[in-house]
Amino acid sequence: MGLFRFLNQWREKQDGTLEGPALNTDEITNVADRILDSVAEIESLPEDVSDGETVAIGRPDTPYQLTRSDLNIDGVSGLTLLFQSRFATNGDPILQAADGANVGGFVFGQNTAVNDLTVRNYGFDGNAANQTSGTELEAVEIQSASDVDLINAYASNLYPQNEHNSGGSAFVFSECDDVSVRRVKCDNPGDRTLELFSVVDFDVKGVFGTEGYDRTVTVANGSKHGSVETVRSTGNADGSVVATQGTSSAYCEDVTIRDVKARGPHARAAKAEQYSQNVRFYDITSEPSSGQGGFGVNFKGGVVRDVLLDDFQFTGIGAPVTVRKDSDRVKISNGEIRDANDAGMVIFGNTTGTEIEVRNVLATGSSGVDFKTDTKDVIFDGVTYDTIETAVRTIVNGKSTQSAAPGSGAAGDYWGGHSATAYQHNVTIVDTSTSPSSYYKADEGGNWVQIG
């Protein structure tokens, strides 16, 4: 079997796991410059690797037991690290932290940048139950690298467990550019499954996490110009399945998140947090019974702008869609919210956000109201609902209700001075101060015309 045919045979099973073949010895012999088959050879790689090499690691009967704490490969260009399989013959990951070793897996580019790096079929078990000290013992970490491919990787039981930031995460990239990630999975990360910190130009397809602590995928600290597609998460205890988050000096921007399915309890399916801009979410789903008390999608505010949520479905979860303060130019479209354990969609927080639009969304059966906003100038168009709470100049399916005639200057007149906006959106203003109610539209010249 050729190498690329081998890679294309990996598939996601119904339970979210990956399955695929192992390369046989002849196949790795044909593509590798050398094959390693001992812990000593593997742990000597930092001092014994050359530019342009393809180094293969043979499949052992039981995992290689790692003890070296500085398994760091620096300054190399054109390296391919090819494992015969992610797993030893006994079914455990091919690499494992030895009892009491308190080590993680490989680190690339920590001291000197690497270039043109490929890692295939990587497997690492952190053996968390038998470690005693250390923080952030990651499965693999890639720093200061360009042109990176990580393909068919697996990690499990990382140390320490259930610690945010200090816990062991699986696949960590920082200060990298031109990154491709394909088909990676982690069971029981101590913190996150995939971390992208200050990564530019990235393409991620296929991330699977079970029983994580914080986010399954985080795109953060200046990461931009990239996409994350096909994320499956089960039992994500404390964080989002996928989230973007920047800083005041390093915005997270121009990111597409697509095809996210959250299974089992989790805090939220997706989130755009502070200093995120031009972020797009498509095809986001939380299964029923998951996410109680959390969110489906949360735009947290604190400078979140030009964000899109399109094609989503949430049934029986808590707070399915939430837009918080300081969220600008938010568009939400083509979704269904059913039987929420809270309000279906909330746009709130004394927000100063502008240009918030909700189009073609059904919300019904919520334990709270289906749509709720305390924010000015929100547009709901083509929405279906049982209950709705509106605010100043809220437009709902082409109408906006207030307790005064527009332009009258009377108490309750919020559309006075906003006739251009009313004309732009072809809004009918409903004045409920009369019986029956009166109806107005703005003409092109900014005048209010009573139509009924």
TrEMBL record:
InterPro entries: Pectin_lyas_fold, Pectin_lyase_fold/virulence. This is Uncharacterized protein. It comes from Haloarcula argentinensis.
